[in-house]
Amino acid sequence: MVGKRVRRKLLSCSFLALSAASEWGYPDLDNNQDEPFPKWGGLCDTGRKQSPINLHVKGALKGEFTPLKFENYDEHQGALQMVNNGHSIQLSGFAHDLTLSGGGLANDFVVEQIHMHWWSEHTINDIRYPLEVHIVHRNKIYPNITMAANFKDGITVIGVLYHVSNTPNDAIGSIIKSLDNVKSYAQMNVPTHVADSLAVDDLVPSVDTYFTYAGSLTTPTCAEAVTWIVLTNTFPVTLDQVNQFKEIEYKQDKQLHNNYRELQSENNRALVLVQQQQQQRDSAGRLSAQGLGLIVLLGVAVRQLQL
Ligand SMILES: *[C@@H]1O[C@H](CO)[C@@H](O)[C@H](O)[C@H]1NC(C)=O
Ligand SMILES: [Zn+2]
Question: pLDDT tens digit string along 97-112?
Answer without folding.
Answer: 999 999 999 999 999 9
